[in-house]
Write a structure and sequence with these properties.
- By secondary structure, the chain is α/β, with parallel strands linked by helices.
- The chain has 14 helices and 15 strands.
- The strands form 3 sheets. A 7-stranded mixed beta sheet has the order 4-10-9-8-7-5-6, sandwiched between helices.
- A hairpin with a 5-residue loop joins β14 and β15.
- The radius of gyration is 21 Å and the shape is globular.
- Belongs to the class-III pyridoxal-phosphate-dependent aminotransferase family.
- Keywords: Aminotransferase, Pyridoxal phosphate, Transferase.
- This is alanine--glyoxylate transaminase.
């Protein structure tokens, strides 16, 4: 099938807001290691990992064998009304890894569902619907999760089940200005005065769609202190930061020495199979009244995939690899930014790396130039992402199995794209 025909059918059959990258969208047909082959037979290094989901990359033998063993039983899915061995084993493992006292785990299908569940539990536990969230945060696409997402363009509905107070992420003010308040903590305390006590504080340890910005540790610790004083539940959204991707830590919240009451996760846990969940103190999750199930969350195949993924990450030292290869790539981004004035603020934690694209004269974000960079990288065989408040940030997040040789090739392609897309006046 021709990719153009598939693109036409995509636009006809799916909603307009289901966006795709590239002027001519990529049509993957096979993959191995960190390389995707498109419908034209062209290879591409995947340095976005299905939006930080394919933790191990593609064609991993041990992962495939684990899935085959489960499929050989004939049971890919069974209701959570029955006992599921892989689900219980995974829950026990995650509860132990979480560091949360008396932890229990509830499985769902995605990060959106995980954050929905965490917010539901927080409101039931505290009896309030006031939530503190961070500017430039992103927590999902449902009514509840978009309500607490602080990114313009990702809040499609004006309606909200919560009263939300946005706190500065240390980079952007609550009213959308490009600079934070002089004292973000005092600003938050002033805006909380006279309001109902918050039920929850929800934070990403490294903001994903917000451009891989790491909020200052001291700031997050102060926000956590304020939340605790009000009896609010601290929710750490680890959908993108968990499982060693940040290199220095297994959980992203460990970068900030936070002690969450609730951890949400999804994406990379099952190397591409849909699985998400919530880890929390029992008293918080048990505060949800009545009964509930998750039809697909915690199914045998997805939980088997998660167990195999976690085993592979630990057995092959992939957290250390994320730190090592991430440092190499960050050094390359720093070098490129020194040579090209339109590349600004290279940053990252482990294999969550980013660089902003800006007009070299005004310093203003340049989303058009960012798109051009992504297109140029794809033309030369490298897949990267885009994000940030203005859609002007390049996001780079390969599988945790990436090699130093692949990092060197990606750096070469990024350098060629930077040269190709550099404004003429800036490079003169």
């Amino acid at each position: 099938m021709k990719s153009q025909d598939l693109h036409d059918r995509h636009r006809s059959a799916l909603p307009r807001w289901v966006t795709t990258y590239y002027e001519q969208p990529l049509h993957p047909v096979s993959a191995t290691g960190r390389t995707i082959i498109d419908a034209h037979g062209r290879p591409h290094l995947d340095f976005f990992a299905g939006i930080l989901t394919n933790s191990l990359g593609y064609g991993v033998a041990e992962f495939r064998r684990a899935l085959d063993r489960q499929l050989d039983t004939g049971i890919a899915h069974t209701s959570t009304l029955y006992l599921i061995d892989a689900q219980v084993r995974l829950a026990e493992r995650l509860a132990e890894q979480s560091g949360i006292d008396d932890a229990v785990v509830f499985f769902v299908n995605s990060g959106t569902e995980a954050n929905d569940t965490a917010l539901l539990a927080a409101t039931c536990h505290t009896g309030g619907n006031h939530v503190i969230a961070l500017t430039d945060g992103y927590h999902g696409r449902s009514l509840t999760s978009t309500a607490v997402s602080g990114l313009p363009g990702w809040q499609p509905s004006p309606y909200s089940p919560f009263h939300v107070t946005f706190a500065s992420n240390g980079r952007t003010s609550p009213d959308g200005e490009e600079h934070p308040p002089e004292d973000p903590v005092a600003d938050l305390e002033a805006r909380l005065a006279g309001l109902a006590p918050p039920a929850a504080l929800i934070v990403e340890p490294v903001q994903g769609l917000g451009g891989f910005h790491t909020p200052p540790t001291a700031l997050l610790q102060q926000y956590a202190r304020i939340a605790a004083q009000h009896g609010a539940v601290l929710i750490c959204d680890e959908v993108q930061t968990a499982w060693g991707r940040t290199g220095r830590a297994w959980w992203g919240h460990q970068l900030h020495q936070l002690k969450p009451d609730v951890i949400t996760f999804a994406k990379g846990i099952a190397n591409g199979l849909p699985l998400g969940g919530v880890i929390a103190r029992r008293e918080i999750l048990d505060s949800v009244p009545g009964k509930s199930i998750s039809t697909f969350g915690g199914n045998p195949l997805a939980c088997t995939a998660a167990l195999a993924t976690l085993d592979h990450i630990l057995d092959h030292g992939l957290q250390r690899n994320a730190e090592k290869t991430g440092q190499i790539l960050l050094a390359e981004l720093l070098r490129l930014s020194g040579a090209h004035p339109h590349l600004r603020n290279p940053r990252g934690q482990g294999l969550m790396l980013a660089v902003d694209i800006a007009d070299p004269h005004t310093g203003r974000p340049d989303s058009g130039a960012a798109v051009a960079h992504v297109e140029a990288c794809r033309a030369n065989g490298l897949l990267i992402g885009i994000g940030g408040r203005h859609g002007s940030t390049l996001r780079i997040a390969p599988p945790l199995t990436v090699t130093e040789e692949e990092v060197a090739e990606a750096a070469r392609i990024l350098a060629a794209a930077a040269q190709h897309c550099a404004p003429t006046s800036a490079s003169a």
